[in-house]
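DM between two lab members

TW: hey, do you still have the DUF4189 domain-containing protein entry open?
JB: yeah, one sec
JB: this one, 166 aa:
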Amino acid sequence: MIVVIVAVTGFLLLVGGGAAVLFWSDDDDDRPSTTSVASRPTYSGLPTPPTYSPPSFPTSEPTTSAPTYSPPPQNYGAIAVGRNGAIGKAWDYDSAAAARRRALNECPTSGCKVLTTFVNGCGAVAFNSRTNKYWGGHGSTKAAAQRNAINNAGGGRWITWVCTTR
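TW: and the structure you got?
JB:
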């Protein structure tokens, strides 16, 4: 089977806008084809262009959780004192009750009493020799707690202090 391609004119290609005429023949001889061009299948030399679909967008805004407030940790402390001046201290406990229990357990003699409990700050104990009594105080700093204890005692001197980790 010989396929004959006939007649492409240079003038039509150059001047006539690139029109070309192709003739297909299934015959072995040089006779013109009796089949019309319209009844023959055509094949495009170009691939089918791809179709474009725009990307899909979310139907709603993404939800982001609002930042939540976390309060600072509460660190409790306490100081217990015995009649003889024995001292028990506790700091950085999750509750005031736990800090008081620990201060009493740390006091080496029986009959100790918790004189001050504080949170995220400092505690101090002062002794007034005129009244022969111990007094507790608290404050945001060591110095503030000592002043508060001495004022509560009506004078005297501080004997111990402790601060929590803030």
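TW: got it. DSSP finds three helices and six strands in the chain. The first strand starts at residue 76 and ends at 81.
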